[in-house]
């Protein structure tokens, strides 16, 4: 069972289906609406319609996972190499590489993290359905770094509540275009889906509250190395916030950090940056640290990863080229 409680004032008055789409973005609105109509979603122990307007302290219970259906495909186990940082009886911590999709989607049934998890582990949480075994949260395909995997439903439920209540502390390292300024601060701009492209997001005054703290680590030529600390967990949050400041993530085509950004530079610079884009993996955003309460011991635990080698290679290459 997946549980939510309406605690934020900005969620009051939101439609039930819209609230669930925002908080479980990997599921389509039509799938969530169907689940509500089939009586699988309850609010304060009662069945409600898709258009029910939420009130403060409403408790929402999803009675079984959204992915269970007769038409659902079987998840194919695949021997995908996984970088396992830590494992015990209840959780697994992995370092996801860039350009690895987390779970199957439309036209993408194989080669995902979920396929690899199915192959390597016998026991994984089933709360998010057959095609998302153990997956508590997501990273974008192009984003690398730490992910928590749940082995049991009880661990999954505990971790999901921590994410829901914003108790999980996350740190990301990114290479952005431009010399990031101010050097330290908080980006506090609401984010919503783009009407013309539902796979993209932008700053939207009618969107959901989104907050990201940041700190500049280093400026080098036309780029910056920045730490980001998301306080909320909106889809594409760091990417959208960085772009809104005028400093998109390097390699992020969707939010202005790809080849189109290079067009504004002189040819001698543009050639160098095109070469860097060609060998860079994904976009330059890495989840390097996470802190949470272990679901069984209830003790705070922290896991870290090093900055990826291709990040360091990128920085070294840029500095070397300009020193010549």
List the helices and strands and how they pair.
Elements: E1 2-5, H1 16-23, H2 29-37, E2 41-43, E3 46-47, E4 59-62, E5 84-87, E6 91-96, H3 113-120, E7 144-150, H4 153-164, E8 169-177, E9 184-188, E10 191-193, E11 201-203, E12 211-220, E13 223-230, H5 237-244, H6 259-262, H7 267-279, E14 285-293, E15 300-304, H8 309-323
Helix pairs in contact: 1-2
How is this structure best summarized?
Helices cover 24% and strands 25% of the residues. By secondary structure, it is of the alpha+beta class.
Structure in words:
This protein has 324 residues and is an alpha+beta fold. Helix content is 24%, strand content 25%. The chain has eight helices and 15 strands. Strands 5, 6, 7, 8, 9, 12, 13, 14 and 15 form a nine-stranded mixed beta sheet that branches. Helix 1 packs across helix 2. The longest helix is centred in the last third of the chain and has 15 residues.
């Amino acid at each position: 069972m997946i549980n939510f409680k309406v605690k934020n004032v900005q969620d009051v008055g939101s439609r039930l289906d819209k609230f669930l789409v925002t908080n479980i973005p990997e599921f389509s609105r039509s799938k969530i609406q169907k689940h509500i109509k089939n009586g699988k979603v309850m609010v304060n122990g009662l069945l409600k319609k898709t258009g029910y307007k939420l009130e403060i302290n409403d408790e929402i219970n999803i009675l079984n996972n959204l992915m269970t259906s007769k038409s659902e495909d079987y998840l194919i186990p695949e021997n995908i190499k996984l970088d396992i940082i830590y494992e015990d009886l209840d959780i697994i911590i992995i370092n996801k590489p860039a350009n690895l999709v987390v779970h199957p989607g439309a036209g993408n049934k194989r080669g995902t993290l979920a396929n690899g998890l199915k192959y390597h582990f016998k026991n994984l949480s089933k709360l998010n359905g057959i095609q998302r075994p153990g997956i508590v949260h997501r990273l974008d395909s192009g984003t690398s770094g730490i992910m928590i995997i749940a082995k049991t439903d009880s661990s999954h439920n505990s971790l999901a509540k921590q994410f829901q209540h914003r108790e999980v502390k996350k740190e990301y390292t990114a290479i952005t275009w431009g010399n990031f300024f101010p050097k330290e601060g908080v980006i506090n701009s609401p984010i919503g889906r783009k009407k013309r492209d539902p796979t993209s997001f932008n700053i939207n005054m009618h969107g959901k509250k989104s907050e990201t703290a940041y700190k500049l680590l280093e400026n080098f030529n036309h780029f910056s190395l920045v730490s980001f600390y998301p306080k909320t967990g909106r889809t594409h949050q760091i990417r959208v916030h960085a772009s809104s400041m005028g400093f998109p993530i390097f390699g992020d085509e969707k939010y202005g950090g790809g080849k189109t950004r290079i067009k504004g530079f002189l040819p001698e610079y543009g050639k160098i940056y095109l070469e860097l884009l060609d060998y860079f993996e994904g976009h330059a955003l890495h989840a390097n640290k996470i802190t949470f309460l272990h679901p069984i011991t209830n003790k705070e635990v922290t896991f870290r990863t090093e900055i990826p080698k291709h990040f360091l290679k990128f920085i070294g290459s840029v500095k070397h080229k300009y020193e010549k």
